[in-house]
Amino acid sequence: MSSTVSTPVGAAPAAQASLYLRLVLVMLFWGGSFIAGRDLALHMPHFIAATARYLVAAALLIGYLWRREGLPRPRGRQWAEIAVLGASGVFAYNAFFFGALERLPAGRAALIIATVPALTAVSSWLIFRLRFAWWQWLGVAVSFAGVAIVVSHGDLATLGSGAIGAGELLMFGCALSWLVYTLMGRAMLRRPGALSPLATTAYASAFGLLMLAAVAAFELPLLDWARVGWIELSAIVYMGLFGTALAFVWFYEGVKEIGAARATVFGNLVPVFGVALAVIVLGEPLLASMVVGGAVTLTGVSLTNLERGRR
């Protein structure tokens, strides 16, 4: 006598709802990283803060990798590529990130980083020769127009007369660092015999941690422990655990289940959460230029990510 196991009615929709909830939480974690990063940038030397963040993140990612896949060994040129990923997506990104947040409100910084999808699209067209539809090019232009509104506080005429300061330039450097990390990672993961996304990110985090720690050693005399309280320690744990390790694992689970294109669209929520949390937690003002510029930027990002079959 045989029996069959049937799938409970509603199980699939429930699983999909759980997946979508995790992706939304990932964007909330990333948006919250601007809030935590703002506090750390104002109370700790930047490379020490970044080192502490990735000490938590790298330990968790390496531990999770060991549990899931063992510790696969990179081969040949993969070592050099992982080093580049660590230098761009971890070392340079965090150097620009904390430098910018020392000078910029968290909400404003979160809106500027929204240029990453548009920059990635243009770079993919230049490097990988991807074909874009006219509405995708329109989306790129609209994205940059939205950021221009945010940076200029709604007065575009000031863009050439001091509206772009050191903080804005550092945040654009942050975006470019992530662009290099994204493009290098994409090329690396598509080769035969490539490491998994989890292994690649775990090893890149470890390499980046070593680079950050080397510079942080020179900042130790500048560290004032009297300015480091439970809020700063909580911010470090939050950024390492939620904003880096857990966010990565959940995001790539989403990519595996629904594809990169659909999972990436959730990224539109990062600046929304970043601005909302900056207003609620830090008490930053919500300017009309941020609302208008943010809406324009997100519209452009949505157009850029709109595929031909889903127009």
Number of helices: 12
Largest sheet: none
Radius of gyration: 20 Å
Whole-number mean pLDDT:
84
Can you put this structure into words, describing what you see?
- The radius of gyration is 20 Å and the shape is globular.
- It has 311 residues and is mainly α.
- The protein has helices spanning 11-43, 46-69, 77-103, 106-112, 116-127, 134-151, 166-189, 197-219, 230-258, 260-265, 269-281, 288-304.
- The chain is 75% helix and 0% strand.
- The relative contact order is 0.21.
- It has one domain (29-310).
- Residues 1-11 have low confidence and may be disordered.
- Helix 2 packs antiparallel against helix 8 (197-219), helix 4 (106-112) packs antiparallel against helix 11 and helix 5 (116-127) crosses helix 7 (166-189).
- It is built from 12 helices and no strands.
- It starts with 10 loop residues before the first helix and ends in a 7-residue tail after the last helix.
What are the main properties of this structure?
0% strand, single chain, mainly alpha, 311 residues, 12 helices
What layout of secondary structure does this protein have?
Blueprint: H1 11-43, H2 46-69, H3 77-103, H4 106-112, H5 116-127, H6 134-151, H7 166-189, H8 197-219, H9 230-258, H10 260-265, H11 269-281, H12 288-304
Tell me briefly what this model is.
The chain is an all-alpha fold. The chain has helices at 11-43, 46-69, 77-103, 106-112, 116-127, 134-151, 166-189, 197-219, 230-258, 260-265, 269-281, 288-304. Residues 1-11 have low confidence and may be disordered.
